[in-house]
Amino acid sequence: QVRLVESGGGLVQTGGSLRLSCAASGRTTSRSTLGWFRQAPGKGREFVAAISSNGGTTDYADSVKGRFTISRDNGKNTVYLQMNSLKPEDTAVYYCAQRGVVTMNYDYWGQGTQVTVSS
Fold it and tell me: Which residues contact 53 (CB under 8 A, 6 or more apart)?
């Protein structure tokens, strides 16, 4: 079983920064791709960023490229999302997720953490 717990959300002004963390507990976490997704009010969940198991490959949504950085510490089973130059449109609940090593789908999800960017 995999459990994911996000932290680090909060209220920040436009142009500010936040660092989200996601602590994972699971035997397969270090071998899995980890991702961040977000869901704004009234909208569907959207991909934000992902990082491969060894951290060597990352992927970002166009809307966050150059502003957000995903990283991971496999020794701590934790994935991070450094968010800089935040905009009001970044306001959302942010979720971390772990891709299944067999299914290759994001099978495991955290409960989410709220990020609110004020204008």
Answer: 30, 31, 32, 33, 74
Beta carbons of 73 and 102 less than 8 angstroms apart: no
pLDDT in tens, 51-91: 999 999 999 999 999 999 999 999 999 999 999 999 999 99
- Tokens representing 100 are 């299944």
Which regions of 1-119 does DSSP assign to beta strands (E)?
3-7, 10-13, 18-25, 34-39, 45-51, 58-60, 68-73, 78-83, 92-99, 106-109, 113-118
**What average pLDDT does the segment 86-106 reach?**
94
